[in-house]
Amino acid sequence: MNMHVEVAATVPVAAPAEALDARGRRVAEAAARHADAVDREGRFPAEAVAALKAERLLGIQVPRSLGGEGASMSEIAEICAILGRACSAAAMVFAMHHIKLASLVTHGRDSAWHCTLMERIAAEQLLIASSTTEAGIGGDLRNSLCAVEAEGDAFRLTKEASVISYGAQADLILATARRHPEAATSDQVLVALLRDQITLARTGVWDTLGMRGTCSDGFLLKAEGVPLVQVLQKPFAEIAAQSMLAASHLLWGSVWYGIAAYAVDRARAFVQGEARKKPGQVPPGALRLAEAANELQAMKSTVVAGLARYEDAKGDPDALGAIGFSIMLNNVKTTVSGQAVDIVQRALGVVGIAGYKNGTPFSLGRQLRDVLSAPLMISNDRILSNTANLLLVQKGSGKLLSA
Fold first, then answer.
1. Engineered SS bond to 243: which of 68, 73, 81, 106, CB 3.0-4.6 Å?
2. Is 138 helix (H, G, I), strand (E, B) or coil?
Protein backbone atom coordinates (compact mmCIF):
# COMPACT_ATOMS: atom_id res chain seq x y z
CA MET A 1 0.00 0.00 0.00
CA ASN A 2 1.49 3.27 -1.10
CA MET A 3 2.09 5.64 1.81
CA HIS A 4 3.37 8.51 -0.35
CA VAL A 5 1.89 11.94 0.42
CA GLU A 6 2.11 15.15 -1.54
CA VAL A 7 5.32 17.04 -0.81
CA ALA A 8 5.34 20.81 -0.59
CA ALA A 9 6.99 22.57 -3.52
CA THR A 10 9.81 23.81 -1.29
CA VAL A 11 10.87 20.24 -0.41
CA PRO A 12 13.50 18.93 -2.86
CA VAL A 13 12.50 15.68 -4.54
CA ALA A 14 15.48 13.76 -5.91
CA ALA A 15 13.83 11.17 -8.11
CA PRO A 16 10.36 9.86 -8.92
CA ALA A 17 8.93 7.89 -6.01
CA GLU A 18 8.64 4.87 -8.32
CA ALA A 19 12.43 4.78 -8.77
CA LEU A 20 13.07 4.78 -5.02
CA ASP A 21 10.27 2.26 -4.46
CA ALA A 22 11.77 -0.08 -7.06
CA ARG A 23 15.16 0.09 -5.39
CA GLY A 24 13.54 -0.54 -2.03
CA ARG A 25 11.68 -3.57 -3.39
CA ARG A 26 14.91 -5.08 -4.68
CA VAL A 27 16.45 -4.69 -1.23
CA ALA A 28 13.32 -6.19 0.32
CA GLU A 29 13.67 -9.27 -1.88
CA ALA A 30 17.21 -9.80 -0.58
CA ALA A 31 16.16 -9.09 3.00
CA ALA A 32 13.25 -11.53 2.88
CA ARG A 33 15.49 -14.40 1.79
CA HIS A 34 17.56 -14.08 4.95
CA ALA A 35 15.01 -12.73 7.46
CA ASP A 36 14.37 -16.04 9.22
CA ALA A 37 18.08 -16.74 9.58
CA VAL A 38 18.73 -13.23 10.88
CA ASP A 39 16.04 -13.76 13.52
CA ARG A 40 16.99 -17.32 14.40
CA GLU A 41 20.71 -16.57 14.75
CA GLY A 42 20.26 -13.08 16.21
CA ARG A 43 22.69 -11.75 13.63
CA PHE A 44 23.05 -8.49 11.74
CA PRO A 45 21.10 -8.41 8.43
CA ALA A 46 24.33 -8.11 6.47
CA GLU A 47 22.82 -9.16 3.14
CA ALA A 48 20.05 -6.55 3.38
CA VAL A 49 22.48 -3.78 4.33
CA ALA A 50 24.79 -4.77 1.48
CA ALA A 51 21.79 -4.47 -0.84
CA LEU A 52 20.93 -1.05 0.65
CA LYS A 53 24.45 0.09 -0.14
CA ALA A 54 24.35 -1.42 -3.62
CA GLU A 55 21.10 0.43 -4.32
CA ARG A 56 22.67 3.57 -2.79
CA LEU A 57 19.74 4.05 -0.42
CA LEU A 58 21.80 5.05 2.63
CA GLY A 59 22.58 8.49 1.17
CA ILE A 60 19.27 9.42 -0.44
CA GLN A 61 18.40 11.96 2.29
CA VAL A 62 21.62 13.93 1.76
CA PRO A 63 20.96 17.13 -0.21
CA ARG A 64 21.70 17.08 -3.94
CA SER A 65 24.29 19.80 -3.43
CA LEU A 66 26.28 17.37 -1.27
CA GLY A 67 25.97 14.40 -3.59
CA GLY A 68 22.74 12.87 -2.32
CA GLU A 69 19.22 12.73 -3.74
CA GLY A 70 17.39 15.07 -1.36
CA ALA A 71 14.76 12.42 -0.62
CA SER A 72 11.85 13.56 1.54
CA MET A 73 10.80 11.95 4.81
CA SER A 74 7.74 10.56 3.04
CA GLU A 75 9.85 8.81 0.43
CA ILE A 76 12.11 7.33 3.10
CA ALA A 77 9.05 6.23 5.08
CA GLU A 78 7.74 4.39 2.03
CA ILE A 79 10.96 2.37 1.82
CA CYS A 80 10.74 1.64 5.57
CA ALA A 81 7.26 0.18 4.99
CA ILE A 82 8.45 -1.89 2.02
CA LEU A 83 11.34 -3.30 4.07
CA GLY A 84 9.07 -3.85 7.08
CA ARG A 85 7.09 -6.40 5.07
CA ALA A 86 10.27 -8.37 4.39
CA CYS A 87 12.55 -8.18 7.42
CA SER A 88 11.76 -6.15 10.52
CA ALA A 89 15.40 -5.91 11.59
CA ALA A 90 16.61 -4.69 8.20
CA ALA A 91 13.79 -2.15 8.09
CA MET A 92 14.63 -0.88 11.57
CA VAL A 93 18.34 -0.55 10.74
CA PHE A 94 17.41 1.50 7.66
CA ALA A 95 15.02 3.64 9.72
CA MET A 96 17.50 4.27 12.54
CA HIS A 97 20.21 5.19 10.04
CA HIS A 98 17.97 7.81 8.43
CA ILE A 99 16.78 9.12 11.80
CA LYS A 100 20.36 10.06 12.60
CA LEU A 101 21.04 11.30 9.09
CA ALA A 102 18.04 13.62 9.48
CA SER A 103 19.86 15.31 12.37
CA LEU A 104 22.91 15.90 10.19
CA VAL A 105 20.91 17.12 7.22
CA THR A 106 18.80 19.49 9.34
CA HIS A 107 21.48 20.83 11.66
CA GLY A 108 24.89 20.20 10.08
CA ARG A 109 24.74 22.23 6.90
CA ASP A 110 26.34 25.32 8.46
CA SER A 111 29.45 23.29 9.37
CA ALA A 112 32.05 22.60 6.69
CA TRP A 113 33.18 19.42 8.46
CA HIS A 114 29.67 17.99 8.69
CA CYS A 115 28.95 18.91 5.06
CA THR A 116 32.05 16.95 4.06
CA LEU A 117 30.80 14.10 6.23
CA MET A 118 27.46 14.10 4.42
CA GLU A 119 29.30 14.00 1.10
CA ARG A 120 31.14 10.91 2.36
CA ILE A 121 27.89 9.29 3.54
CA ALA A 122 26.42 9.70 0.07
CA ALA A 123 29.56 8.69 -1.82
CA GLU A 124 30.68 5.80 0.41
CA GLN A 125 27.25 4.74 1.72
CA LEU A 126 28.38 4.98 5.35
CA LEU A 127 26.06 3.33 7.88
CA ILE A 128 25.15 5.55 10.86
CA ALA A 129 24.33 4.28 14.35
CA SER A 130 23.08 6.15 17.41
CA SER A 131 24.33 6.29 20.99
CA THR A 132 21.78 8.19 23.06
CA THR A 133 21.02 5.77 25.89
CA GLU A 134 23.43 5.46 28.80
CA ALA A 135 23.85 3.37 31.91
CA GLY A 136 22.46 5.26 34.90
CA ILE A 137 19.79 7.26 33.06
CA GLY A 138 17.61 4.50 31.64
CA GLY A 139 15.86 5.37 28.40
CA ASP A 140 15.88 9.15 28.99
CA LEU A 141 17.70 10.40 25.90
CA ARG A 142 17.37 14.01 27.06
CA ASN A 143 19.94 13.54 29.83
CA SER A 144 23.59 12.44 29.73
CA LEU A 145 26.17 11.58 32.35
CA CYS A 146 29.18 11.41 30.04
CA ALA A 147 30.73 14.67 28.84
CA VAL A 148 32.84 16.10 26.05
CA GLU A 149 36.25 16.71 27.64
CA ALA A 150 38.05 19.27 25.50
CA GLU A 151 41.84 19.48 25.29
CA GLY A 152 42.85 22.24 22.92
CA ASP A 153 41.25 21.61 19.52
CA ALA A 154 40.34 18.02 20.34
CA PHE A 155 38.23 16.13 22.87
CA ARG A 156 37.85 12.77 24.50
CA LEU A 157 34.67 10.97 25.46
CA THR A 158 33.90 7.88 27.52
CA LYS A 159 30.32 6.62 27.49
CA GLU A 160 28.76 3.56 29.08
CA ALA A 161 26.21 2.99 26.37
CA SER A 162 23.58 0.51 27.51
CA VAL A 163 22.50 0.05 23.88
CA ILE A 164 24.05 0.90 20.52
CA SER A 165 22.03 -0.75 17.78
CA TYR A 166 24.37 -2.40 15.23
CA GLY A 167 27.22 -0.49 16.87
CA ALA A 168 29.76 -3.13 15.90
CA GLN A 169 28.78 -2.82 12.23
CA ALA A 170 28.40 0.97 11.95
CA ASP A 171 30.78 3.23 10.05
CA LEU A 172 29.77 6.28 12.07
CA ILE A 173 28.15 6.79 15.47
CA LEU A 174 26.29 9.94 16.54
CA ALA A 175 26.52 10.12 20.32
CA THR A 176 24.98 12.43 22.90
CA ALA A 177 27.00 13.85 25.79
CA ARG A 178 27.06 16.81 28.15
CA ARG A 179 28.61 19.87 26.54
CA HIS A 180 31.46 19.88 29.10
CA PRO A 181 32.18 18.12 32.43
CA GLU A 182 30.54 20.89 34.51
CA ALA A 183 27.40 21.10 32.38
CA ALA A 184 23.98 20.01 33.59
CA THR A 185 22.88 16.56 32.49
CA SER A 186 20.34 18.17 30.14
CA ASP A 187 22.92 20.49 28.51
CA GLN A 188 23.75 18.08 25.72
CA VAL A 189 25.47 18.08 22.37
CA LEU A 190 25.58 15.56 19.53
CA VAL A 191 29.02 14.40 18.36
CA ALA A 192 29.95 12.54 15.20
CA LEU A 193 32.45 9.73 15.75
CA LEU A 194 33.99 7.87 12.85
CA ARG A 195 34.74 4.19 13.19
CA ASP A 196 38.52 4.66 13.31
CA GLN A 197 38.22 7.26 16.07
CA ILE A 198 36.61 5.03 18.69
CA THR A 199 36.95 1.77 20.55
CA LEU A 200 33.95 -0.33 21.54
CA ALA A 201 34.12 -2.88 24.34
CA ARG A 202 30.98 -5.01 24.47
CA THR A 203 29.31 -4.92 27.90
CA GLY A 204 25.97 -6.55 27.11
CA VAL A 205 24.50 -8.92 24.53
CA TRP A 206 21.23 -8.30 22.68
CA ASP A 207 19.38 -11.56 23.35
CA THR A 208 15.73 -10.63 22.99
CA LEU A 209 12.28 -11.88 22.08
CA GLY A 210 12.21 -10.03 18.77
CA MET A 211 14.04 -7.46 16.63
CA ARG A 212 17.03 -9.71 17.20
CA GLY A 213 18.86 -8.64 14.06
CA THR A 214 19.30 -5.04 15.20
CA CYS A 215 22.16 -6.36 17.37
CA SER A 216 21.59 -3.68 19.99
CA ASP A 217 24.41 -4.70 22.29
CA GLY A 218 25.75 -2.59 25.13
CA PHE A 219 29.21 -1.04 24.78
CA LEU A 220 31.77 1.01 26.61
CA LEU A 221 32.52 3.66 24.00
CA LYS A 222 35.83 5.53 24.17
CA ALA A 223 37.12 8.25 21.87
CA GLU A 224 40.44 10.11 22.13
CA GLY A 225 41.86 13.02 20.19
CA VAL A 226 38.70 13.73 18.20
CA PRO A 227 38.66 17.20 16.57
CA LEU A 228 36.18 19.56 18.25
CA VAL A 229 34.76 20.49 14.85
CA GLN A 230 32.94 17.14 14.93
CA VAL A 231 30.66 18.42 17.71
CA LEU A 232 27.39 19.83 16.37
CA GLN A 233 27.10 23.24 17.99
CA LYS A 234 23.33 23.41 18.14
CA PRO A 235 22.01 22.15 21.52
CA PHE A 236 20.80 18.57 21.34
CA ALA A 237 17.48 19.73 22.80
CA GLU A 238 16.83 21.62 19.55
CA ILE A 239 18.11 18.77 17.39
CA ALA A 240 15.79 16.33 19.17
CA ALA A 241 12.76 18.63 18.92
CA GLN A 242 13.27 19.77 15.32
CA SER A 243 14.39 16.57 13.59
CA MET A 244 15.00 13.50 15.72
CA LEU A 245 11.55 13.29 17.34
CA ALA A 246 9.71 13.53 14.03
CA ALA A 247 12.04 11.19 12.15
CA SER A 248 11.91 8.58 14.92
CA HIS A 249 8.15 8.40 15.31
CA LEU A 250 7.36 8.63 11.59
CA LEU A 251 9.97 6.16 10.35
CA TRP A 252 9.44 3.69 13.19
CA GLY A 253 5.72 3.93 12.52
CA SER A 254 6.33 3.15 8.86
CA VAL A 255 8.34 0.04 9.76
CA TRP A 256 5.54 -1.16 12.05
CA TYR A 257 3.01 -0.45 9.30
CA GLY A 258 5.00 -2.68 6.96
CA ILE A 259 5.01 -5.50 9.53
CA ALA A 260 1.27 -5.16 10.10
CA ALA A 261 0.54 -4.98 6.35
CA TYR A 262 2.43 -8.22 5.79
CA ALA A 263 0.38 -9.92 8.52
CA VAL A 264 -2.90 -8.73 6.96
CA ASP A 265 -1.71 -9.96 3.56
CA ARG A 266 -1.09 -13.42 5.04
CA ALA A 267 -4.51 -13.41 6.69
CA ARG A 268 -6.16 -12.35 3.42
CA ALA A 269 -4.42 -15.12 1.49
CA PHE A 270 -5.53 -17.66 4.09
CA VAL A 271 -9.17 -16.58 4.00
CA GLN A 272 -9.17 -16.52 0.20
CA GLY A 273 -7.84 -20.06 0.20
CA GLU A 274 -10.57 -21.17 2.59
CA ALA A 275 -13.20 -19.52 0.39
CA ARG A 276 -11.98 -21.41 -2.66
CA LYS A 277 -12.36 -24.69 -0.77
CA LYS A 278 -16.03 -23.97 -0.03
CA PRO A 279 -17.55 -21.80 -2.78
CA GLY A 280 -20.57 -19.80 -1.71
CA GLN A 281 -19.67 -19.84 2.00
CA VAL A 282 -18.07 -17.01 3.92
CA PRO A 283 -15.04 -18.42 5.81
CA PRO A 284 -15.12 -18.07 9.61
CA GLY A 285 -12.09 -15.76 9.62
CA ALA A 286 -13.50 -13.29 7.09
CA LEU A 287 -15.00 -11.00 9.73
CA ARG A 288 -11.76 -10.91 11.72
CA LEU A 289 -9.92 -10.14 8.47
CA ALA A 290 -12.24 -7.21 7.81
CA GLU A 291 -11.54 -5.86 11.30
CA ALA A 292 -7.78 -6.17 10.80
CA ALA A 293 -7.96 -4.48 7.38
CA ASN A 294 -10.01 -1.66 8.87
CA GLU A 295 -7.47 -1.07 11.62
CA LEU A 296 -4.60 -1.24 9.12
CA GLN A 297 -6.23 1.53 7.09
CA ALA A 298 -6.61 3.64 10.23
CA MET A 299 -2.97 3.01 11.10
CA LYS A 300 -1.86 4.04 7.62
CA SER A 301 -3.95 7.22 7.81
CA THR A 302 -2.28 8.18 11.09
CA VAL A 303 1.23 7.76 9.68
CA VAL A 304 0.43 9.52 6.39
CA ALA A 305 -1.18 12.45 8.22
CA GLY A 306 1.89 12.75 10.42
CA LEU A 307 4.18 12.74 7.40
CA ALA A 308 2.09 15.44 5.72
CA ARG A 309 2.25 17.61 8.85
CA TYR A 310 6.02 17.15 8.99
CA GLU A 311 6.52 18.03 5.31
CA ASP A 312 4.47 21.20 5.83
CA ALA A 313 6.51 22.21 8.90
CA LYS A 314 9.94 21.23 7.58
CA GLY A 315 12.35 24.15 7.60
CA ASP A 316 10.27 26.15 10.08
CA PRO A 317 11.85 25.82 13.57
CA ASP A 318 8.85 27.48 15.22
CA ALA A 319 6.41 25.02 13.65
CA LEU A 320 8.62 22.04 14.44
CA GLY A 321 9.03 23.14 18.04
CA ALA A 322 5.36 23.96 18.62
CA ILE A 323 3.57 22.17 21.46
CA GLY A 324 0.81 20.96 19.17
CA PHE A 325 3.34 19.48 16.74
CA SER A 326 5.10 17.59 19.53
CA ILE A 327 1.79 16.24 20.82
CA MET A 328 0.86 15.11 17.31
CA LEU A 329 4.12 13.19 16.94
CA ASN A 330 3.74 11.62 20.38
CA ASN A 331 0.23 10.53 19.43
CA VAL A 332 1.45 9.02 16.16
CA LYS A 333 3.91 6.86 18.06
CA THR A 334 1.62 5.67 20.83
CA THR A 335 -1.29 5.09 18.47
CA VAL A 336 0.44 3.19 15.67
CA SER A 337 2.63 1.12 17.99
CA GLY A 338 -0.47 -0.19 19.74
CA GLN A 339 -2.35 -0.68 16.47
CA ALA A 340 0.52 -2.67 14.96
CA VAL A 341 0.51 -5.18 17.81
CA ASP A 342 -3.27 -5.53 17.66
CA ILE A 343 -3.33 -6.01 13.88
CA VAL A 344 -0.71 -8.75 13.89
CA GLN A 345 -2.52 -10.51 16.73
CA ARG A 346 -5.81 -10.30 14.81
CA ALA A 347 -4.12 -11.70 11.70
CA LEU A 348 -2.69 -14.56 13.75
CA GLY A 349 -6.18 -15.30 15.01
CA VAL A 350 -7.41 -15.53 11.42
CA VAL A 351 -4.75 -17.98 10.20
CA GLY A 352 -4.73 -19.93 13.45
CA ILE A 353 -2.27 -22.75 13.96
CA ALA A 354 -0.83 -22.25 10.47
CA GLY A 355 0.40 -18.86 11.63
CA TYR A 356 1.53 -20.11 15.02
CA LYS A 357 3.73 -22.78 13.45
CA ASN A 358 7.07 -21.84 11.90
CA GLY A 359 7.81 -22.77 8.32
CA THR A 360 4.32 -22.47 6.84
CA PRO A 361 3.22 -19.98 4.16
CA PHE A 362 1.20 -18.21 6.89
CA SER A 363 3.76 -18.15 9.74
CA LEU A 364 3.52 -14.95 11.78
CA GLY A 365 5.59 -15.79 14.85
CA ARG A 366 8.55 -13.63 13.83
CA GLN A 367 6.32 -10.69 12.92
CA LEU A 368 4.47 -10.91 16.24
CA ARG A 369 7.66 -11.06 18.29
CA ASP A 370 9.17 -8.18 16.36
CA VAL A 371 6.12 -5.92 16.55
CA LEU A 372 5.84 -6.41 20.32
CA SER A 373 8.86 -4.09 20.55
CA ALA A 374 6.83 -1.18 19.16
CA PRO A 375 5.22 0.05 22.42
CA LEU A 376 8.56 -0.44 24.22
CA MET A 377 10.88 1.53 21.90
CA ILE A 378 10.77 4.63 24.05
CA SER A 379 8.08 3.39 26.40
CA ASN A 380 4.57 4.51 25.54
CA ASP A 381 4.09 5.32 29.22
CA ARG A 382 7.05 7.72 29.07
CA ILE A 383 5.66 9.36 25.93
CA LEU A 384 2.15 9.64 27.35
CA SER A 385 3.57 11.26 30.48
CA ASN A 386 5.34 13.81 28.28
CA THR A 387 2.13 14.42 26.35
CA ALA A 388 0.22 14.92 29.60
CA ASN A 389 2.67 17.65 30.63
CA LEU A 390 2.36 19.35 27.23
CA LEU A 391 -1.44 19.24 27.40
CA LEU A 392 -1.35 21.20 30.65
CA VAL A 393 -0.12 24.27 28.75
CA GLN A 394 -1.68 23.74 25.31
CA LYS A 395 -4.65 25.72 24.07
CA GLY A 396 -7.14 23.61 22.13
CA SER A 397 -8.44 24.64 18.70
CA GLY A 398 -11.44 22.31 18.33
CA LYS A 399 -10.95 22.34 14.53
CA LEU A 400 -11.26 19.18 12.46
CA LEU A 401 -8.59 19.96 9.87
CA SER A 402 -5.94 21.62 12.03
CA ALA A 403 -4.22 20.90 15.35
1. 106
2. strand
